[in-house]
Amino acid sequence: MLNNSMLKNGLKLFTIFLIVLITTACNNQNELIVNFESNSGSEISSLTFTNNELNVFPDDPVKDDADFDGWYIDQDLNEVFNLDDIETYLTSGSITLYAKWIENLYQISFDSNDGSELESIAVMHGDEIPLLPEPSKDNMFFYGWYEDEDFNIPFSFSNMPKTHLNLYARWSDNIYTYDLNEFGEATLTDYNLIYH
Questions:
Q1: Those residues with Cβ within 8 angstroms of residue 170's Cβ, 6 or more apart along the chain or in another chain
Q2: Who has the most CB within 10 Å: 32, 54, 117, 193?
């Protein structure tokens, strides 16, 4: 049978055990070092997360001629990192996140409407659009490039927008009448255009 003294000592030991257990649990925070590989973007310093501090994350990196498309767990950029899941990585000690970029290179494609075939060209977003190629078509005059198939919106960009473009060739039959002066300069005297 337990006496009072043994009961008191057992209770003291149990209380000490609980205090040590609680103190250890409170001080034993999981820590995670997060390294950032920006893949030629701006440098991001490593961060340390604990299970008591999961809401701080750096600003997105920046890179010329590309848009940041998120952090990934793997170098092949297949598995997206989700900040809400960071607690699942706390036991690993450290992880490296890899930046994915979308290049700001956009295509201009040409529908020549039965004219000569033209290759697409690639232009960086914001860059000046080079002089566009002109298709040819037998017995037709190339009138210009349009943004729509119904020829309501003439192409007028000087700098590449942040989108791919499909342009449509507009054609016309044409009859021009010119008069030449004594210096060989031509003056248009009459014309007739039929658009296609």
A1: 113, 142, 143, 144, 145, 146, 151, 195, 196
A2: 32
